[in-house]
Amino acid sequence: MKNMLITGGAGFIGSNFVRYLLRIEPEVQIVNLDALTYAGSLENLRDLPDPARHTFIHGDICEPGLVTRLMSEHGIDTLVHCAAESHVDRSIHGPAPFIQTNIVGTFTLLEAARQVWGETGGFEGRRFHHVSTDEVFGSLAAESPAFGETTPYDPRSPYSASKAGSDHLVRAYFHTYGLPVTLTNCSNNYGPYQFPEKLIPLMILNALRGRPLPVYGDGRQVRDWLYVEDHCEAIQLVLAKGKPGETYNIGGGNQPCNIDIVRQICTLLDELHPEGAPHERLITHVPDRPGHDRRYAMDIAKIRAELGWAPRHNLTSGLRATVEWYLGHPEWVAVIAQQSGYNDWLEKNYAQRGGKA
Ligand code: NAD
Ligand code: TYD
Q: Which of 115, 207, 236, 267 is deepest in the core (most CB within 10 A)?
């Protein structure tokens, strides 16, 4: 692993992964291809450790000419595919970009890898790693066992269906062409640089602004939260030790329901930013998300047994670190909230729910 192409490296997980790799892999050269959609920002790539080993390319993964050129010119041996449209609520408002980026974009990358690697020495020593989600497995009942790698796919939102489609394509390229792929399906991430449309950063920023904290439905939905750095470590381990053709489930094992997470954020803010306390007074139940998945949970026995990975952070330490990070980066918050049509999104997603987020 010397020359790595990371897609979506200006987004939340991608930028954390770039940072993580530059810190722990002294040899790797990174090419970071990102279209800078509303979710991506160069603000996420400020003050990188050892920036000379990072090259940013502003472009679309759906452009075959661009992708093949980058792979050839930079002698890419490892591709880590993080680029995606990633927000369920946006996929409900407008599914088209999800199909384009998540399915057509993944297909374009697979074809480029097949072609370029096929023409330059073959697949030996090469790796295509696809970053995916637990949402492809659908929704779990309260008492059902956690998702395993062989749980049948049952996606229920345009987002999860498009990710499921991309996962199937990646596996098909392994079986049909022998492309050396690995996949990780990970649960909900949180941590620094997450765009504040997702639950945890949205609640932090709304609370700081004295705005309502919009909890969908009864707030009893359960996610399997994972601190983003733990996800980065798992991806790195799969690249180093994972077997081509294999999928690894990744999760945090933290499973409180949404309303409890929001309460924990409020308690942390009461301590770290007492102005406006008690923040819980801002909690507002708003109409539910259509087709809202009730519960996700990941069985991580395989990656634990085969690769020795386990999360280092629990929700208590991870949430505290996250709230502290958002409080400590008001400039990032100001730029992100301003440049990305953020207020328009809040208006679109929440005004119709009756909440005033
Ligand atoms: P994100 O929305 O924060 O970032 C996505 C990045 O992809 C952005 O920088 C965006 O500009 C870029 N992008 C979008 N379309 C593109 C295109 N056509 N060409 C090039 N770049 C494009 O997403 P994230 O939360 O960082 O998620 C990264 C990956 O991890 C996704 O594949 C997502 O499905 C998966 N995942 C996310 C979570 C989570 O909780 N955030 C959990 C499991 C898996
Ligand atoms: P989200 O962060 O959008 O991730 P995902 O839908 O991919 O799991 O949402 C996490 C949970 O929080 C999900 O059950 C929906 C809920 N939620 C709210 O209750 N209010 C909100 O404003 C948002 C964005 C999410």
A: 207
In this structure, the residues whose C-beta lies within 6 A of any atom of ligand 2 are: 88, 188, 198-199, 202, 214-216, 221, 223, 258, 289
Domain residue extents for the chain:
3-187+226-252+298-313, 191-222+254-287+315-351
| The token pair that represents 8 in the structure block | 């979506």
Atom of ligand 2 nearest to the CA of 133: 7
Residue pair 355/214 in contact by the 8 Å Cβ criterion: yes
Residue 355: pLDDT band by 50, 70, 90 thresholds? low
Residues involved in catalysis: 134-135, 159
Question: Residues near 268 by Cβ (< 8 Å), separated by ≥ 6?
Answer: 319, 320, 323
Which superfamily does 3-187+226-252+298-313 belong to? NAD(P)-binding Rossmann-like Domain (3.40.50.720)
State the chain's mean pLDDT as an integer.
Answer: 97
Q: How far apart are CA 316 and CA 268, in angstroms?
A: 10
Quote the ligand 2 centre to 291 CA distance (angstroms).
12
pLDDT tens for 79-124 read 999 999 999 999 999 999 999 999 999 999 999 999 999 999 999 9
For the whole model, what pTM was predicted? 0.98
Given CATH 1.10.1060.10, say whether it is the number of domain 191-222+254-287+315-351.
Answer: no
Token readout for 186 is: 């990970």
pLDDT in tens, 64-86: 999 999 999 999 999 999 999 99
Whose alpha carbon is nearest atom 35 of ligand 1? 132
Residue nearest to atom 10 of ligand 2 (CA): 199
Rounded to the nearest angstrom, the distance between the alpha carbon of 139 and the centre of ligand 2 is 14
